[in-house]
Amino acid sequence: MEAAQIMAVVMRLRDTGQVLGALGVCATITICALYVTKSTAQDAKEGQPGAESSASPINGITIPDGYRDWRLISVNHLAGAAGKLKQVRAQLGNDIAIKAFREGKLPFPDGTIIAALHWNEALSDENNKVLASGFPGAGLQSSVAASAENVQFMVKDSKKYAATGGWGFADFKNGKPGDEALHKTCFPCHQPAKDRDYVFTHYAPTP
């Protein structure tokens, strides 16, 4: 190969190397840009209210998806404060909870979740008119669940919540958790039911 041809090949290789080098730099810049964009997005996401900010203090429990579709454990009525407090209450359980209640299993197995739904009770004029028409003179009155008060959860994890009898507690009003002071009262309130694994609710008999 003549000197001129050799020189031409060298020049082409040099140009090719410059192009490849430029491509490499571009690729590096692109990767760095993607990394910065991703990191910025993550930082922004972490700074926004999310599931963690909606978690209960102390136990870090969030509202379980689909809990309104869980099966019924029982219902009850709460009244007090010189007639100012009247609530209709229902307790629901996930599959693990329902199985344990039906089998009378104590202590409840890990994974049990019990939801307590509380509504303010109100007289139903609509129902009372029907009752007065259907049962005249009986003096029947109907109360119904009106505005929602709150929802509470008990989550069984014998290791994670060992300090509170194996249960984690959470209280939510309008989708927002109560403060730490409120949650500190949960376990002491349930201690009288220690012989039933800290659960007050009994499984309601089938009608």
How would you summarize the topology of this molecule?
Elements: H1 3-47, E1 71-80, E2 85-93, H2 95-103, E3 113-123, H3 125-134, E4 143-156, E5 167-173, E6 176-177, H4 180-183, H5 186-190
Antiparallel strand pairs: 1-2, 2-3, 3-4, 4-5, 5-6
Labels describing this entry:
207 residues, alpha+beta, six-stranded antiparallel beta sheet, 5 helices
Please provide a brief summary of the model:
It is built from five helices and six strands; from the N terminus they run αββαβαβββαα.
What are the low-pLDDT stretches, counting only 5+ consecutive residues below 50? 1-11, 13-52
- Report Rg: 32 Å
Task: Kindly report the average pLDDT value.
Answer: 82
- What is the CA–CA distance across the termini? 103 Å
Strands, total number: 6
Largest sheet, in brief, is:
6 strands, antiparallel
Roughly what fraction of the amino acids lie in strands? 25-35%
Encode the helix/strand succession as letters: HEEHEHEEEHH
Strand order of the largest sheet: 1-2-3-4-5-6
Q: How many DSSP H or I helices?
A: 5
Range of helix content? 25-40%
Q: What characteristic shape results from the CA principal axes?
A: globular
Structural class call reads alpha+beta
